[in-house]
Amino acid sequence: MTLPCFKAYDIRGRVPEELSADLARNIGRAFAERFQPRRVVVGRDMRLSSTEIAGALMQGFREAGVDVIDIGLCGTEMVYFAAFHLEKEGVDGGVMVTASHNPAGYNGMKLVTAGSRPISGDSGLRDIEALAERGYDRAPCRGQIEERAVMTPYIDHLLGYVDVPTLKPMTLIANGGNGCAGIVIDAIEKKLPFTIHKIHNDPDGTFPHGVPNPLLPENRGPTVDAVKQHHADVGLAWDGDFDRCFFFDAAGAFIEGYYMVGLFAEEVLRKSPNESIIHDPRLTWNTIEKVKQAGGRAVMSKTGHAFIKERMRKENAAYGGEMSAHHYFRDFAYCDSGMIPWLLLAQQMSRTGLSLHALVDDMQLRFPASGEINLTLPNAKLAIEAVQRAFAAGGVVDFTDGISIDHERWRLNVRASNTEPVVRVNVETRGDRQLMERKTEEVLALLRALA
């Protein structure tokens, strides 16, 4: 198979070289042939090509006799929501047309089947690729199309995660990155006791303020500046399809997603004690400690949304979190949301009277971490073998995802990217920043020698 836009977990590529309208139509036909849905939800982001790509996709579904509910401009999680919320109406699949945080010339798709179960490589995406590559002759549209607004029930669902009357007034910065988050902030702010200063709020596929990816340090400046200008309690920033939310404290400091996992696990377990919490292997000690203290059970899963969601279903876990700012919730059909997390944070701050800095400061001191460091290497397998030879002695080795090695005072995880020739490195220690920095440099020096 030779369609480069088909990745491990989704579809993403340059338009029209790698993802054209004709291919989008074939993907609709292929999805229909592989999964035989009756009705599907289709949504799209703000990219300049999204209307055309979504239209062709819907045509493919309709040619196959599948009815389509078009929810229009939205974020990925709104397709997830509609797919499970409308299941009683016969919806058994959905596609979000988005390339998330990729550059403006890209587009893609995220696919789910009944109950918002993800479709990835091993669960049907490779089959769809093969069928789409084979192609389909054009045919009359037999399926019906219905435009449907889901914002109101979606907002009602989001507000169900917090006790709105107990929320205290606070000032927030909301940086939508000219993605789709702004349409939700506009809809939800009137129901909350917050003063929200919005920047880059309007969806704009030309990305006038840069690609919406707050994980890149160079993209954080506007949020930091706005936090300081408005003396905000919290800064919020999202990627293009807002399935990831990033946090800044009142001083404008970026809070690593690792520590937010511990916070949200604590908040979820407060309402649902004795539940399982899923986490990835990259950085773990803080999460394990927080979950144990809150009476839950920490369960490690391989990194990646398909693996996290599968493990959550297996364990019936209430929450799952990845340090990459993906947060998953059982009551959200085990899907990831970029809106539920900041509501939970606001509730936690309201309940405790503590600032975001105060909530995470102890965690940052107790478990200093390197943050994820990416290295381009030609052979990830050899890199992982070299790490094992150099650092495994006296440690506990785990191969859940790449290699994790736990020593008494420090641990590491080195894993290969699923989509590019990159090795990702994470190091953490027990309360010793200097040791963390030293061990990080040792690991990086070893790996750089292999480049």
Low-confidence blocks of residues? none
Secondary structure: helix percent: 25-40%
Q: Write down the overall mean pLDDT.
A: 97
The Rg value, from CA coordinates, equals 22 Å
| CATH architectural grouping of the largest domain | 3-Layer(aba) Sandwich
Structural class: alpha/beta
CATH class of the largest domain: Alpha Beta
CATH fold category name of the largest domain: Alpha-D-Glucose-1,6-Bisphosphate, Chain A, domain 3
Describe the protein's topology.
Layout: E1 11-14, H1 21-35, E2 39-44, H2 50-63, E3 67-73, H3 76-85, E4 91-97, E5 106-113, E6 117-118, H4 125-134, E7 145-147, H5 151-159, E8 170-175, H6 181-188, E9 194-199, H7 221-230, E10 234-238, E11 245-248, E12 254-255, H8 257-271, E13 276-279, H9 285-293, E14 297-300, H10 305-315, E15 319-321, E16 327-329, E17 335-336, H11 340-352, H12 356-366, E18 373-376, H13 380-391, E19 396-398, E20 403-406, E21 410-416, E22 422-429, H14 433-448
Parallel strand pairs: 2-3, 2-4, 3-7, 8-9, 8-10, 13-14, 13-15
Antiparallel strand pairs: 1-5, 4-5, 5-6, 10-11, 11-12, 15-16, 16-17, 18-22, 19-20, 20-21, 21-22
Helix pairs in contact: 1-2, 1-4, 8-9, 8-11, 8-12
Can you tell me about this structure?
- The chain has helices at 21-35, 50-63, 76-85, 125-134, 151-159, 181-188, 221-230, 257-271, 285-293, 305-315, 340-352, 356-366, 380-391, 433-448; strands spanning 11-14, 39-44, 67-73, 91-97, 106-113, 117-118, 145-147, 170-175, 194-199, 234-238, 245-248, 254-255, 276-279, 297-300, 319-321, 327-329, 335-336, 373-376, 396-398, 403-406, 410-416, 422-429.
- The protein has 451 residues and is α/β, with parallel strands linked by helices.
- The strands form 4 sheets. Strands 1, 2, 3, 4, 5, 6 and 7 form a 7-stranded mixed beta sheet that branches.
- The mean pLDDT is 97.
- It folds into 4 domains: 11-150, 3-Layer(aba) Sandwich (Alpha-D-Glucose-1,6-Bisphosphate, Chain A, domain 3); 171-254, Alpha-D-Glucose-1,6-Bisphosphate, Chain A, domain 3 (3-Layer(aba) Sandwich), CATH 3.40.120.10; 257-363, Alpha-D-Glucose-1,6-Bisphosphate, subunit A, domain 3 (Alpha-D-Glucose-1,6-Bisphosphate, Chain A, domain 3, 3-Layer(aba) Sandwich); 373-448, TATA-Binding Protein (2-Layer Sandwich).
